[in-house]
């Protein structure tokens, strides 16, 4: 059984087909799906999906592309959503210096403020980085040092779609974070393959990032949680492990990170 730790099921790409998408996921062995918001509106949609479907859990927050919208009023509403029983993390938050759809100063402000929300609610964070790993690491290091009690005996979050190197991964592990891999591990000559081989599976999650980043052999098609089997199979091949072991370790990591066995599923 798998946990898809990152899938944006609220996109119009699914629409009325969503029940069939979830059925295919269940048939493929996906028992739980984490749906991160990217704005206040999509965070509310993620919560609504979590309330409707037993297998779905929500994260709430502003993606760095949308950081310009993250004013104090909107962030207060994100805080209010944190009280919903199936909200398991703050995310998707972070820094994206590739597109700069929001000014970098607004991205930095929103990132820090949303981590502070996570600290207040003792929730993990789901972090997006692109051409911003050094600064994201520095922010995480600073706020972890200032708040040592924040999830001191639990994982503090996950850097999703991790494109960093092994040294950066080890730095994150030392701060209590995990990393997650989508279909990029199936891409030919992907640099993350060497990183994964160096760090192993111990602190890794798997995800689809649906509807994006479809895996080989599904490139060019809409991604969905059922396709996580391609990612898991490739990781098993790269690390010389059985598929069942990849499923078990990544499922246990996701369960502990998101508190999926502490009543959140009720």
Q: Which structural class best describes the helix and strand composition?
A: alpha/beta
Distance between the termini: 19 Å
* Residue fraction in strands: 15-25%
Which architecture does the CATH hierarchy give at level 2?
Alpha-Beta Barrel
H-E string: EHEHEHEHEHEHEHEHH
Strand order of the largest sheet: 1-2-3-4-5-6-7-8
Figure out the total of helices: 9
CATH fourth-tier homologous superfamily: Metal-dependent hydrolases
Q: pLDDT below 50 for ≥5 consecutive residues: which ranges?
A: none
> In angstroms, what is the radius of gyration?
17 Å
Compute the number of strand runs: 8
Q: What is the share of helical residues?
A: 40-55%
Domain count:
1
CATH first level:
Alpha Beta
Strand count, sense and closure of the main sheet?
8 strands, parallel
Mean pLDDT: 96
């Amino acid at each position: 059984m798998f946990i898809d730790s990152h899938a944006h099921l609220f996109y119009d790409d699914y629409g009325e087909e969503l029940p069939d998408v979830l059925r295919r996921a269940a048939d493929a062995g996906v028992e739980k799906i984490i749906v991160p918001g990217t704005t206040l509106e999509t965070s509310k949609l993620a919560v609504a999906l979590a309330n409707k479907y037993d297998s779905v859990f929500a994260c709430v927050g502003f993606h760095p592309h949308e950081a310009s919208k993250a004013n104090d009023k909107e962030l207060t509403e994100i805080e209010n959503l944190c009280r919903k029983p199936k909200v398991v993390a703050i995310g998707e938050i972070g820094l994206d210096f590739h597109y700069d759809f929001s000014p970098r100063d607004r991205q930095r402000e929103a990132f820090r403020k949303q981590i502070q929300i996570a600290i207040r609610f003792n929730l993990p964070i789901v972090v997006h980085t692109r051409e911003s790993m050094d600064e994201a690491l520095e922010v995480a290091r600073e706020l972890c040092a200032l708040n040592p009690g924040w999830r001191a005996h639990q994982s503090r979050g996950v850097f999703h779609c991790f494109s960093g190197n092994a040294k950066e991964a080890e730095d994150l592990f030392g701060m209590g974070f995990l990393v997650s891999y989508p279909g990029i591990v199936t891409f030919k000559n992907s640099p993350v393959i060497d990183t994964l081989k160096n760090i192993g599976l111990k602190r890794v999650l798997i995800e689809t990032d649906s509807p994006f980043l479809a895996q080989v052999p599904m490139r060019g098609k809409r991604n969905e949680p059922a396709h996580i089997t391609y990612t898991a199979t490739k990781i098993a091949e790269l690390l010389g492990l059985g598929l069942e072991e990849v499923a078990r370790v990544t499922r246990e990591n996701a369960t502990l990170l998101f508190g999926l066995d502490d009543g959140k599923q009720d």
